[in-house]
Amino acid sequence: MTRTAGKRGSVPAGQKDYRSFSFWLETAGGEIIPRPPLGGPAEADVAILGAGFTGLWTAYYLLKRDPSLRVVVLEAETAGFGASGRNGAWCNAAFPVTPGELARRFGDEAARDLLLEMRGAVDEVGRVAEEEGIDAQFFRGGQLRIARGPAQLPGIEGSYESLRALGLDDGLELLDREETARRVRITGAEGALFSPNCATIHPARLARGLASTVERLGGEIFEGTPVTDFETGTNPRLVTEAGDVRARTVVLAGEAYLARLRKLRRQVLPIYSLIVLTEPLSEERWSTIGWEGRECVASSRYTVDYLSRTADGRILFGGRGAPYHYGSRIEDAYDRHEPTHEMLRRTAREWFPALENARFTHAWGGPLAMPRDWMPTMSYDPAEGVATARGYTGQGVATANLSGRTLSDLILGRDTHVTQLPTVNHRPRTWEPEPLRWLGARYVQQGLMRADDRAERTGEPPTGKTLAERLGKH
To answer: How many structural domains compose the chain?
Structure first.
């Protein structure tokens, strides 16, 4: 039987079975017993909203660089509850904005610097996990972007050329049909672009290991403590029902869940991404599929798919398709959207006929945060006493590490290479008010699906000229 998220929207945080929210949380190691909540008003040097990757990396680097700091992290659920404990296991150097668009917006040099830092972030995640004894199952197998059908060949060729134009083609390989099949056998694969700048991880073990490391370094984490508001200016503080946490600096690191705060509701768009997972496959099945290199795999569809091979021999298949919910609502019940989950199972079997009679044991999902211009921000305003990093659009594992290093440097007044990147103090446009936001999001979601379906049906690449494609360009 497939294990699913079910309907849990009304269950209080302290009564939730957190292991049921994803395979990663289920296998993070033992029971997940929430830390005690905040007991009353408190003070700190830095108060952080969110015990996901962004908040935990920020706390980690702050404490490594200045152990005297009092750092307090407030988490509504439990460490790693959100995207940090439910993602596709990719630790990838790719960025939500494409290399060509980065160069257009910020110039070649700034684009190159940012993408090099993203490559370094992949290495840094592995380095810290090893140094701190975190069993994150870090494995650097690289990434294969598959052209599944002739319509997707121009996409991978264009990606290669845009990176080559920035001098970032080292290690990249354009593979033909036979070379692709020697790595992984996927029906309809006409070629692939290989990049070495990607690893797989066990995300929940990484997140929960980081939380324990932050505590060992002297940080405090209070779980089951939702932040209901925040104040900046002369008296920065995070507001909770248990009392305020006053600090010199507050850090807003809740990613999609920031949309629950009235002051930030139009800053990010919560979009749901869903995942299905097979049972461990037999040697016979793997001999048919190949995939010995355990690369992360995706195609060039607008509507996004992402695959990984787990350490215990399963196939994870994730993708978009679940609808945006009016008013940017986020509910645990939305983690499950059976039409999308069934589409993912069907698509996985289309890609890999060897899965025809294989069981899918898990299905889950969760929200990611999309900014209006697709560009993440890592900002700090010392006059207001507020820092934030957000808007990863599903590329958050390595980006959150870069955010943590950037915010810690900004808060500590360190002038470093990362504080000069174009992500720093970037201010995207706000999303439109409802109902325009709902109408626009649904229109783009459906329009991109139609563009993908048309390309697969005709064998011709998308034109890029439809309104949905233009609105979704990044």
So the answer is: 2
